Amino acid sequence: MVKKDKKKKTETTKEPPESDIQDEVLVATTNLELEPEEVQFTDTSYTSASFESLPPIVEEPKAKKKKGKKTKETEALEVSKKASSEMFQWSEESLAEEQLKVEEEPVESPKKKGKGKKGKKDKEDIPAFEKPKNWKTMNKKEREAWMLQRIEEWRAEKEAEKQAILAGAKEKRIALAKERAELMAKDNAEQEIRRDILQKIVNLFHLFEKRKMDFENKKQLEAEWQQYLRCDGLPDPRVVTQMNTYLHVWKGNSACDDEELNRRCVEVLPMLEMLEEFVANSRQYTPLQAQSYNEVRLELREQLSSAIQYASYSLLRDLEKNLKFHSIKLATYEREFKGLRLNLWVAVRMPTRKPKPLEPDPEPVELSFPSMSVAVKLPKVIDGSCVCVRAARSLIDLLSESTRSYGLAAEMPNRYEDLFVFNVKEHVETYKLKKEQDDIRNKFYKEIQQKIREVENFLKANPYTKNEKEKEELDNLNMAEPPFLPDPRTFMAEQNDLAFKKYLKTCSVKTRSGEVNLRKYRICGGVLNLDLLTTPPQPKRMRDSVTLTTLQLPKTLQPMKYQIQYRAPSPPPAGVTRTPEEIEAEIKRVETEYEKLALVFIDLPQSVMWTEPPVVCQWQEARKLWTSNYINDYKFNEDKLTVQFRTGVLWPIGIAALRYSNLPYQGWDMRPDPESKGVLISVTGVSVTMTWLCLGNSVRLKWIANATTSALKEYFDKPFSVKRMVQVRLHR
């Protein structure tokens, strides 16, 4: 037995075959594999006879050494040979353990051991390490030992880094969840404080609004009683049925001369002012009442516009009776009504004579209307011997409300919702969104945990396989994050902004070329009607007080045919040079075309603050819009506040200014009035600064700084309601 053991001992000290060493080196230098779990054995006794069944070690032929420099692999092989011959001492116990390991290890297919791309194992991407200072003094064995130790350290560092990343990801998730919880708790606390403050403020405003409504109702009852005591036969604008009866009787009265027009202007304008105030304060009425007031108001405006047309026609029907003759060829009419100035200029048609062989060029007709600060020079193409020109300036705009760009295209949603209700709704929606986000995150993490358990169970069931894909999948699952979900409060604010921008888009109106958008501009100073008319047939007086008149239907004003659309050529593009002859020829062509157009001079009214050059436009009746397509050679004198232009049609003329020229506001100031118990409020805009005195239930305009005209001077120190003051400001 001793000899046999010695023989075994000598066999164990022999160098293992080179092929076995190569396999051992490959395992040591290839991809990192986790060590298989230790196999737990039962307490079983083993004898030497148990190892007799081991297969004998078969020596393989040694591989031929290649000439040349030794590579790292060959160095590693040599080091492993020496290490195996010197370090490994085989004993019976170790041999038994190796036998069990051999039985447990799976047998690799010979294809994987063969050479070629398919048989190669995936090598681990080991970085180039920095060599120590004593690298040159180290022998091969020491270098190999240092290299193996450094690789093991690098693997440990890599594993520790991966574990740190996983731990950091978990800590980050916990920190983010904690941060979200703290943020929502803080937001909830702030909302509670804000809700308490807003509730008190809103209750205070509701109290003031109730008092105001009570005051308005009391004021309205008193006005109704005063209207009843007057007993003037006029309807009460507060009663829609009375207004409808008034309109019905007015429409049935076909006769309308200048006296009738004067009476209607006196009666209707106060009614219109009252109805406009009702429409502006429509919140205190039911929707049906507000709609009825607005319909009556529009009908009243339309009827007043028709009355102006009928009165003009009635005046022109009998020139000898109604107009003032300056000569046998010229008659005029001039009268000022309440809110209206009406001028007529008529060249009476004379009997025709035989034309001369050479007729001289006709002289252009130049007209002036001093009461309206308007002058016009008619072109030569218009026969001045039988022309009729009407100039009428109405202080109220009776045309603009029929345009499609005047009113809002869409009503603002929740316009009268107070801030407290809005805040509560937003808070509820915010927490509802937070709960939905929490459900999304919980569902995501639940699915991830389930997948992680499945992969871990698979790895535990297969401990001796590499399972690289499963390990990578496990790492990815541990690092997985739910989809990005924004902060609920920020998200709700962004949604409110988007909803408001969407509403603004619905309010925008696409305008035609030359059309004036009344959401951007407003017609200031009323409307100027400058019309070329055909004189209706005149009555002929016969004997015995008999008068014969030709009846022309319809009994309305007939416009004279004059319409020339011309646009001056735009200046040449940059870099284009023209000869003086070409420039002179173009100027002559433009002047020739300009002679066919009417030249109009207008002094701008002083009741409007003109901060920028106004836009001159004309009314297209067929399309119901204001247009500037017929305006040419426009000139604005800022010092004298006059405009001059040429036009190819004589239609109603409007002077439009920017609606928001004084915006944005630069600042405001509020202080007590030293002379009364009121409060002075000053608002500074881009152009002017306005100051109001708020006293009781009224607002008084005190002064205007940096004004270009004497506008609104007639409204100083007069009490108005807030809505009425806004209307006065918009009309100026």
From TrEMBL:
A cellular component annotation (GO) from this entry: axoneme
Stretches assigned to the CASC1 C-terminal domain: 625-700
Protein name, entry field: Axonemal 84 kDa protein
Bias kind Basic and acidic residues: ranges: 8-17, 71-84, 98-111
Family the entry assigns: Belongs to the DNAI7 family.
Region feature (Disordered): 1-23, 39-127
Pfam families: Casc1_C (PF12366), Casc1_N (PF15927)
Ranges of biased composition (kind: Polar residues): 41-51
Molecular-function annotations in GO: beta-tubulin binding; microtubule binding
Positions of the IC97/Casc1 N-terminal domain: 157-349
PANTHER family per record: DYNEIN AXONEMAL INTERMEDIATE CHAIN 7, LUNG ADENOMA SUSCEPTIBILITY 1-RELATED
InterPro entries documented for this protein: CASC1_C (IPR022110), IC97/Casc1_N (IPR031826), IC97/Dnai7-like (IPR023247)
Origin species: Bombyx mori (Silk moth)
